[in-house]
Design brief:
Helix content: 25-40%
CATH architecture of the largest domain: 3-Layer(aba) Sandwich
CATH class of the largest domain: Alpha Beta
Distance between the termini: 20 Å
Number of domains: 2
Shape: elongated
Largest sheet: 7 strands, mixed
Number of helices: 8
Structural class: alpha/beta
Strand order of the largest sheet: 2-3-4-1-5-12-6
Length: 238
């Protein structure tokens, strides 16, 4: 990759907000082929190819080295793998897409307020209900790592493909790990966050790949992009 490859979210509010922060930095993201095109341009900086991908794809491709830089959530980088945060540089938080990854349990579990309590519930499920706790989530890796740090092993993941917060009410899971901004959706579904159940605070970031092929031209464009965002240059390979 001789040119700098930049990826931004492909649709919705995240795309709009990404465009806005670039425009504020004096750079304009364009999509000459229209809304269905997956390649664009960056006016105001030469030597840059823009790709439009989902936020999850951007996170994965940054850690694989297939992109130089992208706009995506910190939570999605951490979800790729335990090693993923060390394969990128979080160059600048962008002030949108803010959300907390949290553990939420049913309000009816009044005695369960902390992770230690959840550990006891897990053991009780195994002893008396002959099954493990079911945790609905899209954040499988983050959940496993956090539960492991708290010594909780008696559970199983129910991968969520829809509205995760509805899983306890419909009987497909006992608790959830999901993102929240205001907590209103959790409350509306009879759920509350454990007092020490914050796994990660996240927002959209300008994220740089350490694993990408960094040609002299790509480095030069990257330095110019960082300067536009008011970020000091850093070692891309450290």
């Amino acid at each position: 990759m001789s040119e700098l490859v930049l990826a931004v979210p492909s649709k919705g509010r995240l795309e709009e907000q990404a465009r806005a922060v670039f425009e504020k930095a004096g750079l304009m993201i364009t999509r000459p082929g229209g809304a269905r095109a997956y390649q664009g341009e960056l006016r105001g900086l030469d030597g840059v190819t823009v790709r439009f991908l989902s936020a999850g794809e951007i996170a994965r491709e940054l850690t694989r080295g297939n992109l130089h830089v992208g706009v995506t959530g910190a939570d999605l980088i951490h979800e790729v793998s335990e090693a993923a945060p060390n394969q990128v540089i979080f160059a600048k938080p962008l002030g949108f897409g803010e959300a907390d990854v949290v553990i939420a349990v049913p309000d009816a579990w009044r005695d369960v307020t902390h992770m230690d309590d959840l550990s006891d519930v897990g053991a009780d499920f195994g002893a008396h209900k002959t099954r493990w706790l079911r945790v609905a989530t899209k954040y499988v890796n983050l959940t496993r790592a956090f539960f492991s740090r708290h010594g909780i092993a008696e559970y199983r993941i129910v991968e969520s493909l829809g509205a995760t917060e509805a899983a306890p009410a419909n009987g497909s899971a006992d608790l959830i790990v999901d993102i929240t901004t205001t907590g209103n959706t959790l409350k509306a579904n009879g759920l509350r966050v454990l007092e020490d159940g914050l796994i990660l605070k996240s927002q959209a970031n300008l994220i740089v790949s350490r694993k990408a092929a960094w040609s002299p031209a790509a480095r030069q464009s990257m330095n110019a992009l960082l300067q536009a965002f008011g970020v000091a240059h850093f070692d891309l390979t450290a």
